[in-house]
């Protein structure tokens, strides 16, 4: 007899839940980030939008090709005016709002499994995340990673495997949660268990299938 999918999943013993950041643990509004930074440096929002999302600078930082300092230098050069750490951080913080219900769930899960973060972001974000979203700490202390730290970006397989090496947990015992379908598919190719996040109800259903809630 073929066992139902729920019973098969329940037999998988998960040791780690690896969360994406933006649109999973937090709401992230690019337009707020752009307008906030544009106002801070006295620049047109269209120019800031292009610098961050159209120039390739952000992708290079996410892939680990830029240090925190060289990332800010690259933005400053592209915009022809200084982009300071404080201005950058204030804009990112203004655009980022914690999802209290998801954080509550992660806090409950942390009593049973390791919880961690893997976000497509640069070294600067990894360094400043406790100041940008302090509500995530100390829960994720020492386990909040940006892709740049692994010299790759989701959905590249090596970003998942290198992150799990750092965490010391195997792929088949890790549930990866991301709102981006490509990132979810990349995680599965790297042999992680993965859930495509759409809403909290769906995530809770997935966790119940693994007998975690």
List keywords for this structure.
213 residues; alpha/beta; two-stranded antiparallel sheet; 7 strands; 49% helix; globular; disordered N terminus
Provide a descriptive summary of the structure in words.
With 213 residues, the protein is α/β, with parallel strands linked by helices. The chain has helices at residues 5-10, 30-41, 45-53, 57-62, 68-79, 85-94, 100-109, 123-132, 157-167, 181-189, 200-209, and strands at residues 16-19, 26-28, 96-98, 114-119, 144-146, 174-178, 193-196. The protein has a five-stranded parallel beta sheet with strand order 5-4-1-6-7, sandwiched between helices. It has a two-stranded antiparallel sheet with strand order 2-3. Strand 4, helix 8 (123-132) and strand 5 form a beta-alpha-beta unit. The protein is globular and about 55 Å long. The relative contact order is 0.18.
Number of helices: 11
How far apart, in Å, are the first and last alpha carbons?
Answer: 27 Å
Order of helices and strands: HEEHHHHHEHEHEHEHEH
Beta-strand residue percentage? 5-15%
Structural class: alpha/beta
Strand order of the largest sheet: 5-4-1-6-7
């Amino acid at each position: 007899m073929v066992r139902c999918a729920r019973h098969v999943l329940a037999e998988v013993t998960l040791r780690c839940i690896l969360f994406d950041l933006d649109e999973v643990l937090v709401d992230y509004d690019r337009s707020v980030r752009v307008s906030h930074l544009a106002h801070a440096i006295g620049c047109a929002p269209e120019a800031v939008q292009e610098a961050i999302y159209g120039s390739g600078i952000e992708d290079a930082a996410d892939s680990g090709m830029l240090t925190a300092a060289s990332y800010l230098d690259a933005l400053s050069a592209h915009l022809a005016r200084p982009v300071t750490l404080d201005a950058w951080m204030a804009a990112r913080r203004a655009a980022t709002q914690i999802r209290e219900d998801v954080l509550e769930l992660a806090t409950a899960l942390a009593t049973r499994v390791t919880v961690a973060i893997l976000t497509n972001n640069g070294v600067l974000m990894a360094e400043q995340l406790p100041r940008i979203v302090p509500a995530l700490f100390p829960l994720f202390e020492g386990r909040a990673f940006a892709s740049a730290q692994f010299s790759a970006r989701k959905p590249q397989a090596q970003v998942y495997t290198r992150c799990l090496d750092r965490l010391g947990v195997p792929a088949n015992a890790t549930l990866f949660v991301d709102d981006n379908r490509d990132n979810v598919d990349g995680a599965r190719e790297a042999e992680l268990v993965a859930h495509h996040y759409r809403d909290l109800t769906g995530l809770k259903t997935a966790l119940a299938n693994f007998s975690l809630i």
